[in-house]
């Protein structure tokens, strides 16, 4: 796996921890082509795994990236990979080792600030996916202009999510990327 564009272009992301299904280079390239510039954005990478989506955003100029990963061994590998790439964790960039839903529930009261872009790539058959999405849209981190990109499998379509609307959807083999945004007042899209 390699970083596709930006200041870290061509650098590798290192070994993929056991049990982690990384977003392929082809899907990441297509995703960022659709997104356009992420320069200056605050980015949240939920269920980060290898952290490839957040790292790609960092490479392309995101101002701040927060990775959330619940598996301690996977988070250790991610932290080592970030260090190898020279990404310093601290004020702008962070790695939280915890369950995404519990972090989002803590953030419901506010204080974290709004993210411009959220990547959500849970394990494909995750029973928590829908609850995490509900917690995400109930939290204060999704603002009126926030774009949420969900990666999933074609065989596990997303249900309707309260407070969210589908903006776009793209298929890449078995992988489906769905762009979500906060529902507009009055229920219009």
Describe this structure in words.
The protein is an alpha/beta fold. The chain has one domain (25-63, 93-187): Vaccinia Virus protein VP39 (Rossmann fold, 3-Layer(aba) Sandwich), CATH 3.40.50. It contains five helices and seven strands, in the order H-E-H-E-H-E-H-E-H-E-E-E. It has helices spanning 25-35, 52-59, 72-84, 100-107, 129-138, and strands spanning 42-46, 64-69, 94-97, 115-120, 142-153, 164-172, 175-182. Strands 3-2-1-4-5-7-6 form a seven-stranded mixed sheet, sandwiched between helices. Strand 1, helix 2 and strand 2 (64-69) form a beta-alpha-beta unit. The longest helix is centred in the middle third of the chain and has 13 residues, at 72-84.
Keywords:
189 residues, alpha/beta, Rossmann fold, seven-stranded mixed beta sheet, 26% helix
State the secondary-structure class. alpha/beta
- Looking at CATH, the homologous superfamily is Vaccinia Virus protein VP39
CATH class: Alpha Beta
Task: Supply the CATH architecture.
Answer: 3-Layer(aba) Sandwich
Contiguous uncertain segments of 5+ residues = none
Spatial strand order of the main sheet:
3-2-1-4-5-7-6
Portion of residues in helices?
A: 25-40%
Query: How many beta strands in the DSSP annotation?
Result: 7
- Give the biggest sheet: 7 strands, mixed
Envelope shape: globular
Distance between the termini: 36 Å
- State the domain count: 1
Order of helices and strands: HEHEHEHEHEEE
Continuous helix count? 5
Mean pLDDT: 90
CATH topology value: Rossmann fold
Strand content: 25-35%
Taking Cα atoms only, what radius of gyration do you get, to the nearest Å? 15 Å
């Amino acid at each position: 796996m390699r970083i596709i564009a930006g200041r870290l272009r061509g650098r590798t992301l290192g070994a993929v921890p056991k049990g982690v299904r990384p977003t392929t280079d082809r899907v990441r390239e297509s995703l960022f082509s659709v997104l356009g510039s992420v320069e200056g954005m605050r980015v949240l990478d939920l269920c980060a795994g290898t952290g490839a989506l957040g790292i790609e955003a960092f490479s392309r100029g995101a101002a701040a990236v927060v990775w959330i990963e619940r598996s301690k061994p996977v988070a250790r590998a991610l932290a080592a990979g970030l260090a190898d790439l020279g990404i310093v964790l601290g004020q702008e960039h962070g790695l939280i080792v915890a369950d995404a839903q519990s972090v989002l529930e803590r953030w419901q009261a506010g204080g974290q600030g709004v993210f411009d872009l959220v990547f959500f790539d849970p394990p494909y058959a995750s029973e928590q996916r829908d609850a995490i999405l509900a917690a995400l849209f109930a939290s204060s981190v999704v603002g009126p202009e926030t774009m949420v990109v969900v990666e999933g499998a074609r065989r596990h379509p997303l249900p309707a999510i309260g407070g969210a609307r589908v903006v776009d959807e793209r298929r890449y083999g078995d992988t489906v990327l769905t762009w979500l945004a906060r529902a507009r007042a009055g229920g219009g899209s």
